[in-house]
Amino acid sequence: MTERLYRDDPYLLEFEARVVARTDHDGRPAVILDRTAFYPEAGGQPWDTGTLSGVAVVAALEKDGDVLHVLEAPLPADAVAGRVDGERRRDHRQQHHGQHLLSRALVKAAGARTLSFHLGADASTVDLDREVAEAQLRDAERLANEIVWAGHPVRVVEVSPSEARDRGVEPPRDAGDRVRLVEAEGFDIQPCGGTHPRSTSEVGVVLVLGRERYKSGSRVRFVCGHRALRAARERVVATDRLGALLSSPLPGLVEAAERQAAELAATQKRVVELRRQAIELEATRLLAGTPERPVVVAAFDGRPPEELRLLAQALVAARPCVALLASRAERVHLVFAQSDGLPHDVPSLLREAVARLGGKGGGRGNLAQGSGDTADGLDAALAFAAARVRNA
Question: β-strands 154-159, 124-128: how paired?
Answer without folding.
Answer: unpaired
